[in-house]
Amino acid sequence: MNKSLHIAEPLSDETQRAVRWSQERRLQFIDFRLQWDGRLNRADLTNFFQISVPQASMDIRLYIKLASANLIYDHSLRTYAATAEFAPLYPSSGAEQYMEQLLALERQTLAPPQSLIDVRPPVALVALPARHIDQETLKRLLRAIAERGMLRANYQSITRDEPAWRDISPHAFGHDGMRWHVRAYCHLRGGFRDIILGRLLAVEQPRASSIKAQDDVEWNTYVELQLTPHPDMSAAMRHGIEIDYGMQDGKVTLVCRQALLFYTLRCLNFSSEGEPMPDRRQLAIANLDEIHRFLPKSGQA
Q1: Which of 13, 132, 171, 228 is the S-S candidate for 213 at Cβ 3.0 to 4.6 Å?
Q2: Which candidate, 35, 122, 135, 38, places its Cα nearest to that of 80?
Q3: What whole-number distance in Å separates Cα of residue 218 and Cα of residue 141?
């Protein structure tokens, strides 16, 4: 078994109740630093959390009690070192979480003092234009979702030259990998649509709505995509794809909402009919016939 994927047994409910949230965060910090830096000392805790040396010592002792096989004290370096048997105590110490923090730091959506990463490796991101989200608009959308409300919105559609006012009843948010949209019932079009946040020019205060989120069938329907390497690839190339996508027995199942199927297909280089794009044939959908009825129709406003 790959040691980096091994997670220690989760903390019992009794132990979790006994540990305050702030101390739980410090235990996660210890776990994360041991996992990715391979060492930790009291100064790391005191500097990051602005706590006393005695408190840092107490936190380390508690971590030792919970996962004694994870660390050993190196007297020559005066630091705790991760052992060869180290197994993360928290899922937040996983590889995906580490890379998510790197991404958030580079995008500046996470400030360095908030990140558990000590030394950042060089990172570069694909340059993309920023998509504007108005704060007041977002607050009113959040209120409408929380209160199951409807609001009047001035929206710039790509199908007409001039913006138009319409009533929408929002119930959720979606992200297509590049931009946010709000999933809402459009009273003008008479159906649930994806409303791009950046095209909302103005929204009024929400009022009561009779629309229910459970009536959005496409949002509440889940589709299973069975992905396999494209059959035209060589055996070596197929093996590389299987490793890259974590496939087992030559396939991996991806579950997505039907309302997001269009975006999922686009991100995976498939056409809206589920066929691989001609110049990017790496994957194929093994169960294309089964999911044909779920393939996307126009869902944007």
Answers
A1: 171
A2: 38
A3: 20
Phi–psi pair at 167, nearest 5 degrees? -90, 135
Distance (Å, whole) CA 211 – CA 246 = 40
User: Rounded to two decimals, what is the model's pTM?
Assistant: 0.78
For 112-138, write each residue's pLDDT tens digit.
888 999 989 999 988 888 888 899 999
Structural domains in the chain plus CATH codes? 3-93 (1.10.10.10), 135-215 (2.30.30), 221-294 (no CATH)
User: 77 is written with which tokens?
Assistant: 């370096």
Residue given tokens 């010592």 in the structure block: 57
In this structure, what token pair is assigned to residue 107? 């995008």
Count CA atoms closer than 13 A to 241's CA, side-chain side: 22
d(CA 20, CA 18): 7
pLDDT tens for 28-62 read 999 999 999 999 999 999 999 999 999 999 999 99
What count of other Cβ atoms lies within 10 Å of the Cβ of residue 200? 23
User: How many beta carbons lie within 10 A of that of residue 114, not counting itself?
Assistant: 10
